[in-house]
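Let's practice the habit of predicting before peeking. Look at the sequence and jot down your guess about where helices and strands might fall. Then scroll down.
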Amino acid sequence: METMLATISGQFTKSIILGVFLPVVLFVLLGGWLITPLLPPSLPLLGLVKSLDRQWFLFAFTFLIILISGFLYNLNGPIIRLYEGYPWRTSRLGQWLTNANGPICKANKLRLYAYGPYVRLSDAQQKRF
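Done guessing? Here is the structure:
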């Protein structure tokens, strides 16, 4: 049993454990502590979880954490790219936002173009205006 745990734990680096696994564990624990009391008691999933034995609950909890950690680890690159705005311009949402904000952008460009000669004036000439 110890060799199996040593083999499995040797596969995870510190960055995976601290950057993915630990936040997921905290999120699941806080979610269970804060959100579970707000759920209706007639929810079938809640009854199923409460009926589990202690070891099966621990197994389900561990499986949920590993599953969410895997999703978070594999989607880390696309999530960062999404926040940085790379895939937005060519997506449907990006096209819609470009079309919706096009007149605003065009008005701002015209305003900057109109202020261009004023900005290029010297300080003495600007005081006359």
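How did you do? The longest helix spans residues 92-120.
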